[in-house]
Amino acid sequence: MLTLGTAIGGICKTHNPRDALRFVREAGFRAVELSDKNENAPLVLTYADIKDFEYVSFHAPTFPYANDPASRELLQRIEKIHDIRPLDCVVFHPDTVRDLSIFLHATFPVAFENMDWRKATHRTVEDMQRLMDYDSRFKFVLDLNHVHTNDDTLALGKKFYDALGSRLTEIHLSGFAGLHEPLFQTKQDTIINLIQDFSVPIILEGTGAPEELLPERLYVEHTAQEIIRRRAHMTRHTKKPS
After folding, report:
1. Contact by Cβ (8 Å): 65, 102
2. Predicted TM-score of the model (pTM)
3. CATH T-level assignment (fold) for domain 4-238
4. Which of 72, 82, 199, 214 could disulfide-pair with 27, CB 3.0 to 4.6 Å?
């Protein structure tokens, strides 16, 4: 069964977070990724805003995290959301982190995502492996759009699964036509096909307007189900007779 959700960051550029969450619920999503990307404007929510979601993750602000007061204040803001409703995953961009030790005493589950082609670091399996080796509790978020920007053959996706599949806690999924675009528009089913295990929660990152939410959910759900059926059919027909 798919755990399919969407990020609200794009919609929050033009709507407040409570309205964004309402749009997400109305589009039929049971999972969501919250966003607090502005370190100067804390996300303010109540339990009622997120209680209906079965899975809630959180995309932390991009920030030069270090063992310092400013970083500790940001993590305390996330802990306040975590106290309202335990977060299933908190995602950080690793390329700006200056000191990983700041995360060692976090009360929430810490995860890092692979970066896109524009970033100087954490685009490769080797960089992400070193990061995961720092602490066995760190989890991995596989951003398939970022995979595509670094390797249009998509072989990098399999390499990430082979190396870090056991640490995988969430998938970020969107099309790529320049940045993060809806898959129902780009029709890049090969990106969806990179997913090896559809039981891992999937967060859609391509939508930036409320009217895009439902068509994106329906398109990804339909495509994922077709992939799952095709793989099951191939498995049945490749089994050797006993």
Report:
1. yes
2. 0.95
3. TIM Barrel (3.20.20)
4. 214
